[in-house]
Amino acid sequence: MTLSELIGSSLMFGLRGCTLNEDVTRADVDALKGVKCKGVILFDHDIAGNHLRNVINPEQLQRFIADLRHELGSDLIVAVDQEGGAVARLTQERGFLSTVCAEEFAGWAEIDRRQYATNQAKQLRTLGIDLNLAPCVDLAIEPDSAIIAGKRRAFGEDHDTVVASASTVIECFGDIGVRCCIKHYPGHGSTLIDTHMGMCDISETHSPDEERVYRTLIDRFGDSIAVMAGHLSDKRVDDRLPASVSPAHLTGRLRGTLAFDGVIISDSIDMRAVRDRFGEGRAALMALMAGCDIVIDGFNAPGYREPGGQVRIVNTISEAIQSGRWGVGEERLANSRIRIDRFMGRVPTR
């Protein structure tokens, strides 16, 4: 693969619109083609424009995804945040299956949990979505957290409850052929801060059980799951950088201590926790250098954003490799592509 293809394989971008007939959608698809992007993340709501985004109804979405694969390649990864409850891009109001929050799901009998998870996975598979950025495996340690406990996104506050429910989801989705990405490493459940709004320091609140959840799930599922790195700062591990862009967190602890050799995906770099501090191109490069295999930029944050961000991100990464500033970059990206192919069940691309 060429360097540009390797870079594109490590990027997952959001795009506007819900049909290729829209001018903004065509512009975004052309931009993705231009940078050889091989991942898209779908949203139901456009935050900056305050209107519908990619999801109208099942028929429209299935056609839209098929059109995107026709334009961007059959190896395009299509991802969505479909946790259930407050975080669900596919809702009953738009004709999709009803969902429940993680907290409610955890209270069900196992037979009911499996039936529900299987039905949800079948829906995603039918639509053409092959990666669910779920389940959320944060512990509900801080009851007043607006982003985790407040939205009932956690299965519970203890290791065993979270691991049991997450395992059910991962197993059922895997049986249907939809991959799962557990999140938000190293743990978002102990803080009041929302990383969409700013940097989140978990240094004094993070519990060892939060990392133990990841250890258990990694031991159980290996590289058949992906792990999302959150924009979370733990100064005991890295006194300068949040986990999503920290070699100490990702290469040191996640790859080293926890022995995870699967795909690491960044949380979206358009979130203010990293965007305000590093900017789009630098954040993407830092995430890859830290150990991420895929960097997400949802292009779906509040406020105005200068057009052409896709190209700026790719140019920043390419320049760092070609100048020697990231001398091992091409080799690292090639290894990431192998991990991604293995994770998605594809024959590795050379």
CATH superfamily: Glycoside hydrolase, family 3, N-terminal domain
Strand proportion, as a percent range, falls in 5-15%
Q: Which percent bin holds the helix content? A: 40-55%
The count of strands amounts to: 14
Distance between the termini: 6 Å
In quaternary terms, these chains amount to single chain
Order of helices and strands: HEHEEEHEEEHHEHEEHEEHEHHEHH
The number of domains is: 1
Give the name of the CATH architecture: Alpha-Beta Barrel
Query: Biggest β-sheet, characterized?
Result: 8 strands, parallel
> Runs with pLDDT <50, length 5+?
none
With strands numbered from the N-terminus, the spatial order across the biggest sheet is 13-11-9-8-5-2-1-14
- The CATH topology annotation reads as TIM Barrel
Helix vs. strand class: alpha/beta
In short:
The protein is an alpha/beta fold and 350 residues long. It has helices at 3-9, 23-34, 58-72, 102-106, 110-127, 159-176, 208-221, 247-257, 272-278, 280-290, 309-322, 329-343, and strands spanning 11-14, 39-42, 45-46, 51-52, 77-80, 82-84, 87-88, 131-132, 179-185, 200-201, 226-229, 232-233, 264-266, 295-297.
Provide a descriptive summary of the structure in words.
This protein has 350 residues and is α/β, with parallel strands linked by helices. 42% of the residues lie in helices and 13% in strands. The protein contains 12 helices and 14 strands. The strands form 4 sheets. It has an 8-stranded parallel β-sheet. A two-stranded antiparallel sheet has the order 3-4. Strands 6-7 form a two-stranded antiparallel sheet. The protein is globular. The mean pLDDT is 96.
